[in-house]
């Protein structure tokens, strides 16, 4: 299959993101709010188990939430 054929086949199915542009603000705000709550819970109980149950999800929620909020307000990374 040549590169031209692959290009033409791909044009029939355009890329559609999982989270649309209209929903990025809501998803980003929800993730940042969840990160805020999980960070508070982690600060109240610092143990090895709370790192896994609160710390890791809080950091992931903050990371993805920040990227969604940056994209939602028009700053593209």
Automatic annotation (TrEMBL):
Keywords of the record:
Membrane, Transmembrane, Transmembrane helix
Under the heading InterPro entries, the entry gives: TMEM258/Ost5 (IPR007915)
State the Gene Ontology BP annotations.
Answer: protein N-linked glycosylation
In which broad location class does this protein mainly occur, judging by the first location in its UniProt entry?
membrane
Kindly list the places in or outside the cell where this protein is found, as annotated in its UniProt entry. Answer: Membrane
What does UniProt give as GO cellular component? oligosaccharyltransferase complex
Its membrane topology, per UniProt? Multi-pass membrane protein
Family that this chain belongs to? Belongs to the OST5 family.
Report the function annotation for this chain.
Subunit of the oligosaccharyl transferase (OST) complex that catalyzes the initial transfer of a defined glycan (Glc(3)Man(9)GlcNAc(2) in eukaryotes) from the lipid carrier dolichol-pyrophosphate to an asparagine residue within an Asn-X-Ser/Thr consensus motif in nascent polypeptide chains, the first step in protein N-glycosylation. N-glycosylation occurs cotranslationally and the complex associates with the Sec61 complex at the channel-forming translocon complex that mediates protein translocation across the endoplasmic reticulum (ER). All subunits are required for a maximal enzyme activity.
Q: How does it assemble?
A: Component of the oligosaccharyltransferase (OST) complex.
Protein name, UniProt field: Dolichyl-diphosphooligosaccharide-protein glycosyltransferase subunit OST5
Q: Which organism is it from?
A: Aspergillus taichungensis
């Amino acid at each position: 299959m040549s590169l031209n054929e692959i290009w033409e086949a791909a044009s029939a199915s355009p890329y559609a993101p999982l989270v649309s542009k209209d929903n990025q603000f809501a998803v980003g705000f929800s993730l940042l709010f969840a990160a805020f709550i999980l960070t508070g819970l982690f600060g109240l109980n610092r143990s090895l188990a709370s790192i896994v149950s609160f710390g890791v999800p809080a950091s992931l929620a903050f990371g993805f939430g920040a990227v969604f909020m940056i994209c939602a307000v028009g700053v593209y990374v």
